[in-house]
Specification:
Shape: globular
CATH superfamily: Neutral Protease Domain 2
Order of helices and strands: EEEHEEEHHHHHHHHH
Number of helices: 10
Helix content: 40-55%
Radius of gyration: 18 Å
Oligomer: single chain
Structural class: alpha/beta
Number of strands: 6
Distance between the termini: 39 Å
């Protein structure tokens, strides 16, 4: 069966891969919505490395000639960290051979300017796209962790399993949560700050384009996710944050495992999160409205 790509930042999808463009920072789109306040200066990039990254474990690296050495080393270091972070956080990590590519052009990179697209055992970073270039090193590491979580979703049959995958907002929101939890664990950006950035992003969007983004049930289908304008990754991450209240990240394992076992997504959702999808859709507007909107966007790093 053909699988669909996840393209970070643009969410334009092509056959064979799952694509993400980034997010509000993933994710996933990977470009934050501009706010009225200027973001803080990006953290300095590491010094150029002597050569391309060495392959390790199940990972092989391939970069186009002319790609930035800093990007190459950042991606390799973030892959190593993400691999270990998934193991320590979830008790599982990527075990399938996985090719990590950094390209300056590719058909999958032409779909909306996203940062990356991911499929079974393969991540391609679009290093010349706005979804990658607009960000500093912290957000780029978040993107890498987000994409590696997609590889795990494929391996555990959450992705590549169209009958069971469930809503895109859960797929992408989960990858954004994991990405930002990863950079928080690395000491680069607190998770509370990252979560606040999501609230500011979709709140600012609502001011510019009232009434703003719809409720989660309106972006449940693939078509709705692809065609609804605005910072969907930010909204999806907030939705997954609500799902995980009092449960923790390992609840995502329960959902993933239920899908892999052949359970339909509504039943898997109720089993993993102890409430129905209808209940979360009913509760989410009040939850979203209860979250404080930061005065400044602090994730421009």
């Amino acid at each position: 069966m053909t699988t669909l790509p996840r393209i970070t930042a643009s969410l334009a999808l092509t056959l064979t891969f799952a694509g993400c463009g980034g997010g509000s920072g993933g994710g996933t789109p990977t470009s934050p919505t501009p706010s009225a306040a200027a973001p803080p200066a990006a953290a300095p990039a590491p010094a150029p490395a002597a050569g391309p990254p060495a392959n390790f474990g199940v990972y092989t690296f391939a970069f186009d000639a002319g790609t930035n050495a800093n990007d190459q080393q950042l991606i390799a270091g973030a892959v190593q960290f993400a691999h270990d972070f998934l193991q320590s956080t979830f008790g599982r990590t990527v075990t399938v051979p996985t090719r990590i590519s950094g390209v300056l052009s590719a058909p999958g990179c032409a779909q909306g300017g996203g940062a990356a697209f991911t499929g079974q055992g393969a991540i391609t970073f679009c290093l010349a796209n706005p979804g990658w270039m607009a960000h500093g090193p912290v957000t780029r590491q978040k993107i890498v962790i987000h994409e590696l979580y997609h590889v795990l979703q494929f391996e555990r049959r959450w992705l590549g399993n169209p009958q069971a995958a469930g809503p895109d907002w859960i797929i992408e929101g989960a990858a954004e949560v994991v990405g930002y939890q990863g950079v928080a664990a690395r000491g680069l950006l607190s998770y509370a700050t990252a979560a606040g950035c999501q609230v500011k992003e979709y709140s600012d969007f609502a001011v510019r384009q009232p009434p703003g983004l719809p409720n989660l049930n309106a972006i449940e289908s693939r078509m709705a996710w692809q065609t609804t304008p605005g910072p969907l990754y930010a909204l999806a991450m907030t939705g997954v944050d609500q799902l995980l209240l009092g449960r923790g990240l390992t609840a995502l394992n329960s959902y993933m495992d239920a899908l892999a076992g052949g359970m339909g997504w509504p039943a898997a959702f109720q089993q993993a999160f102890a409430l129905t999808s209808t209940a979360i859709y009913d509760q989410f507007p009040a939850y979203r409205a209860s979250l404080p909107v930061p005065a400044n966007y602090l994730c421009g790093v």
